[in-house]
Structure prediction request, 251 residues.
Amino acid sequence: MPKNRNTFSSLAAWRRRALSRAVHRGWRWVQESGAVTAEHPGGLRFGRIGAGTRLAFPQGTVFGEQWIELGAHCVIGEQVTLTAGLMPGLDLGPESILTLGDGVVLGRGSHVVADTKVAIGSDTYCGPYVYITSTNHSYDDPHEPVGRQWPRMEPVAIGPGCWIGTGAVILPGATLGRNVVVAAGAVVRGEVPDHAVVAGAPARVVRSWDAEKGWQPPLRTPAPVPIPSGVTPKQLLSLAEPDESSGPSGG
Prediction:
């Protein structure tokens, strides 16, 4: 009898392993088939989608894509929301509302909500769950629910080469210069100059570059290691995102 139990147990374990492999192979096939590229746009009809750009599957909410332009070699992570206009089905005119330059990376779960113009410069990298919006609720009338008051809209411009950390929020009217670093969880409004590091809510400049003195306050970190040649934005994005397969401990 013990021998039979061992046989049944081994058979059940083999079946579980086989089923797990099949599920993972099937999911990889779904991810590959559901990804959006210029060659395989699926049901999405963007105003432009550049060569080498890829929207991972599953996508988040996407509408108004006729007014969305995506540059070349962009990496859009899973569950990223890209919207132009307050709601689907609106005629937003002849010009694009949301534009991404070449090589932009949007991490998993990020939102870019463009009810008026939002421009993200080339080679800007966003970590997971970044929120960029050109719209904010108004609360002028204390007697009316905030959600029923007409929102305010202001354009957003993010310069090239920026790094926007996990969970950061870029508010309407924000203008970020070139190579700006936004710390994780920061809430950014107003103008941020080139080569600045901002942190906090609301965000403020905590470090900036001076042509004569270098970074002020001086950097306390080791000298940077150059990125090896051939490393793609997609590979860098995977380093910035948590490895969910390893569990909470990371082991």
Q: What stands out?
A: Residues 244-251 have pLDDT under 50 and may be disordered. The longest strand covers residues 204-210. Helices lie at 2-34, 233-240.
